[in-house]
Amino acid sequence: MSFASCTSNYNQEDLYGSWANEDWAFTFNKDKTCKVASNGVEFPGDKTFKTFGNTLEFIREGKIFLSNITVKGIEGNTLTLEIRQMFTGAEKTSKLIVLKKK
User: Fold this and answer.
1) In this structure, is residue 44 part of a structural domain?
2) Using CB atoms within 10 A of its CB, is residue 15 exposed (0-12), middle (13-18) or buried (19+)?
3) Is residue 97 part of a domain?
4) CB 3.0-4.6 Å disulfide test: which of 25, 75, 76, 84 passes with 20?
């Protein structure tokens, strides 16, 4: 029997706070509430997030609305995420996004 590893390559405390670039904005709170915006538009409703090792999952009204996001690393005031763009028809199925701490 084998178990998947749930270790991460970053300190959870370093994730907390607000991060943004020109396309995305995330706020991660210690109580697991969050804000998520894309292209300047915040996703509505009460939102929470879960971490599974380096993977992030976002929940709104009891349902997953954003998943397949991997924390590639946190270095100083820079957060790098990998977003897997499923069902886009694009050749490239993942995209690295670099966010700065606000």
Assistant:
1) yes
2) buried
3) yes
4) 25
Domain count, the chain: 1
- Pairwise CA distance, residues 82 & 98, whole Å: 9
CA–CA separation, 21 and 44 (whole Å): 19
7 in a structural domain = no
Q: Which residues pair with 42 in a beta bridge?
A: 37
CA angle (84 as vertex; 51, 53 as ends), nearest 5: 20
Give the structural domain span for 76. 16-101
Express each pLDDT in 20-37 by its tens digit: 999 999 999 999 999 999
User: Model pTM?
Assistant: 0.86
> At which residue do the structure tokens 């969050």 appear?
34
Q: Distance between CA atoms of 34 and 36, rounded to whole angstroms?
A: 7
Q: Is residue 55 part of a domain?
A: yes
Report the candidate in 72, 87, 92 with the shortest Cα–Cα distance to residue 19.
72
